[in-house]
Write a structure and sequence with these properties.
This protein is mainly α and about 750 residues long. Among the domains are: about 60 residues, no CATH class; about 200 residues, no CATH class; about 80 residues, Alpha-Beta Plaits (2-Layer Sandwich); about 90 residues, no CATH class. It contains 32 helices and 9 strands. It has a 3-stranded antiparallel beta sheet. Strands 1-4 form a two-stranded antiparallel sheet. Strands 2-3 form a two-stranded parallel ribbon. Strand 7 and strand 8 form a beta hairpin. The longest helix has about 35 residues. It is globular, with a radius of gyration of 32 Å.
Length: about 750
């Protein structure tokens, strides 16, 4: 087998002593042979000229890695279960149109629990995984992680074609997973608790949430925890397929090829940033007995870049937190010297050899000098911030992988200018001071990726600056939407500055240098143009926003007001809404507004048709939309026509309070007052803090002669109003009754 130390030897200066050697025919050792040659004599992976003549063959593995197949079977089973989960969600809506399943069992879902209080399956799974790691070590990483499975598969395929990925060794970049874990799971909670403590226990300091810069992500407010184990929009937190495929390629193949067999785990996995420290206190360890003769087979098969033979020699067990307990080393040991069992945690482990006791055990040399460490780490950080969100698509973990890969490539390109012999795995980039053809291709790739990072960085910096100016705009809605509005000079200049920075990052068709405006940005641009007095542009951006997904009721009303302010008629508003509906059938809020306009215009048949369309959808609209559409039908005397549809909708979404309210009105219009009273009772139970619901319920009780119960409801209304006033005085957040429970990332802060 070809030894990967050739790369370090050529990069590190050994190439001067090997100028007469072919770039392809050299094989150096990774490990000492079974004859017992000392570590000092055999040297490390990056052996220099002083021992380049002592070429030895790597130890031949006499046993097959039996655990490899078993682990592959388990990981395949994990993926099968994932596919079954997705299939169950897709098929669940065949009967009633509502797709419903357990929330994604993905650790990143924990963010929504910590920031919004939405307890989901991902949070429970992540907690259990951390607890198991505290006891057994990083078993989950080795036996249950789909990204580890992808990396192992890519590494296996590479070795089949003769490529043995050499691990990239850096001092500072290894802290990237920990920093990501803190950013995702710790920092939002610490920030929220810190400001809460300042506001409640140290008011004399005078620092509140309002002092937090408005152009930065807001501080989350946690009103309490709620059950969100079952969701309807399962796929909301996952990227579309055209992003998922590049994500898997970058985090799997590219990270393995450039940075080693566990490249993503080492430099990009935020979950590993928590599992690694947890492993330090675990009692599950790979242990050694007296049968060990230091042959090195264990290290040769380890895909986690752990020097197993050295760990067990110096400590009697593997203490490296990178060990993922895949047990390959145990299964391959020719003397059955290794086993998994209970041992003292790493933090209480002392060395057995003199070097270990003095904490001077020999480790593979790092690939970077300290100066290079700081430059590469800073470059990786800047590239991460640049790539994240590029094309409105690149997710955070993919941006991390891209940033580290390009920073590594930039370092490698720099070495091509000052080092005679440079290799990237099996590819010779430079030989005897001259670049190879593959070296030129690598340089072109690196320059292009650096240019893309710089381009995306300029655009994203513009977005940050745009947010800064945007949040300085303080004009009120009533002022902008009033007749004869004239922009204030200062406010107009702030709006124009924000617009300039946002639109610079827009598509070339709009005069920008970036990509299409998406997410909340078109709505913000519409508002800023309205503040600046440019209503036609505000209308254009609102139309764009409503074609990118189901628009909110506020966005639809915003468009209607902008059209009216341009001295247009209600028919023009309807025409604009109808145009949106032709292009976006999921714009249910728009159809609801069209039905209301038709009522105003006297087009009763059209209004009823749109209302019934929303009520009778097989895949239903949000409860608030359905309930308002039902009320339109009731007001037009069509309650009997929608009664069956409303009953079906209440049965398939029994916990939606707005549907109960609307169905109560349908029953009341049909003269079924007892049924209406029962539905209102259920609506109040589902939304106990809703004053409006209780007022309607009290009126219905009085009409049915239940005066005592009605008086009790009025007393409850007074109590709720008093409680809300006290909460407001204390500055505590109050979460109003929701049309539907937030699911996945729907309500992510």
């Amino acid at each position: 087998m070809r030894d990967t130390s050739l790369i370090a030897g050529l990069d590190g200066g050994a190439g001067h002593a090997m100028k007469s050697c072919s770039p392809k025919g050299i094989s150096l050792t990774v490990l000492p042979s079974a004859s017992g040659i000392s570590e000092k004599k055999s040297g490390s992976n990056n052996s220099g000229p002083q021992n380049s003549g002592q070429l030895k063959t790597s130890p031949k593995v006499h046993r097959k890695v039996r655990m490899g197949r078993r682990r592959a079977f388990v990981l395949i089973l994990v993926h099968v279960l994932i596919l079954i989960h997705v299939a169950q969600w897709l098929l669940s809506g065949m009967n009633d149109g509502i797709r419903e399943t357990i929330s994604p069992i993905e650790p990143s879902e924990s963010m929504y629990t910590l920031e919004g209080g939405y307890v989901n399956a991902g949070f429970i799974f992540f907690v259990l995984a951390i607890l198991s790691t505290l006891i057994f070590g990083r078993f989950f990483c080795g036996w249950g992680c789909h990204v580890v499975a992808l990396q192992d598969l890519c590494s296996h395929w590479m070795k089949k074609i003769g490529v043995h990925p050499k691990p990239f060794r850096a001092r500072l970049l290894v802290f990237a997973p920990m920093c990501l874990a803190i950013y995702m799971f710790v920092w939002p909670t610490v920030l929220r608790l810190g400001f809460t403590a300042l506001e409640r226990f140290a008011p004399q300091v005078g620092i509140t949430r309002n002092d937090w810069p408005s152009w930065l992500p807001p501080i989350s407010q946690l009103a309490g925890f709620s059950n969100h184990l079952v969701v309807e929009d399962f796929w909301r937190t996952f990227p579309p397929w055209y992003v998922a495929i590049p994500f898997l390629f970058v985090c799997g193949f590219a990270m393995v090829y450039f940075l080693g067999s566990k490249g993503f785990c080492t430099y990009g996995c935020p979950y590993g940033g928590l599992f690694g420290p947890a492993d330090l206190v675990s009692i599950g360890k790979i242990k050694v007995n007296d049968n060990c003769n230091g042959c090195g087979h264990c290290t040769a098969v380890c895909t986690s870049n752990v020097r197993v033979h050295q760990e067990v020699r110096d400590y009697g067990k593997v203490i490296d937190p990178g060990c993922m307990k895949c047990l390959d080393c145990v299964s391959v040991c020719p003397n059955d010297a290794l086993s998994f069992g209970i041992a003292a945690p790493t933090i209480f482990t002392k060395g057995r050899t003199e070097a270990a006791k003095k904490k001077k055990t020999q480790r593979p040399p790092y690939d970077l000098t300290w100066g290079q460490e700081f430059i590469v780490t800073l470059l990786a950080l800047l590239l991460f911030m640049s790539f994240r969100g590029m094309f409105n698509s690149v997710p955070m973990l993919m941006a991390v992988a891209m940033g580290v890969i390009v920073a590594f490539s930039a370092w490698k390109l720099g070495r091509m200018f000052n080092t005679p012999n440079v290799r990237l795995q099996s590819i010779q980039l430079a030989f005897r001071g001259k670049w190879t053809s593959k070296g030129y291709l690598f340089a072109f790739f690196t320059v292009v990726m650096l240019a893309m990072g710089a381009w995306s960085g300029v655009i994203r910096a513009g977005f940050v600056l745009g947010n800064y100016y945007d949040h300085k705009v303080s004009v009120g809605l009533d002022q902008v939407f009033s007749r004869g509005y004239v922009p204030d000079k200062v406010q107009k200049q702030l709006a124009l500055s924000a617009i300039s920075n946002f639109e610079r990052g827009g598509p070339f068709s709009d005069g920008g240098i970036g990509w299409k405006q998406a997410g909340e940005r078109p709505i913000r641009l519409a508002w800023l143009h309205a503040v600046a007095g440019n209503l036609p542009e505000a209308e254009r951006y609102l139309r764009l926003a409503m074609l990118q997904g189901p628009p909110t009721g506020e966005t639809v009303d915003f468009l209607g007001q902008i059209i009216i302010l341009q001295n247009k008629k209600i028919n023009d508003v309807r025409a604009a809404f109808a145009e949106v509906l032709e292009k976006n059938l999921q714009a249910h809020e728009v159809r609801l507004r069209v039905a209301r306009i038709d009522v105003q215009l006297g087009k009763i048949d059209a209004a009823v048709a749109n209302a019934k369309y929303l009520v009778e959808l097989k895949r239903p609209a949000p409860p608030g939309v359905t309930s308002q559409a039902a009320m339109i039908a009731v007001s037009l005397g069509k309650s009997e026509e929608i009664r069956a549809a409303m009953l079906r909708d209440v049965e398939r979404r029994p916990k939606a309070a707005p549907l109960r309210l609307a169905y109560a009105q349908v029953l009341y219009a049909a003269n079924d007052k007892n049924g209406a009273l029962e539905q209102m009772r259920l609506a109040v139970e589902l939304a106990p803090m809703s004053v409006q619901y209780r007022q309607l319920f009290a009126s219905l009780l009085m009409e049915n002669g239940k005066n005592d119960e009605a008086i009790a409801q009025m007393a409850e209304i007074d109590r709720i109003n008093q409680e809300l006033a006290e909460m407001q005085a204390r500055g505590e957040p109050f979460q109003a009754p929701l049309e539907e429970a937030p699911q996945g990332s729907q309500s992510r802060p």
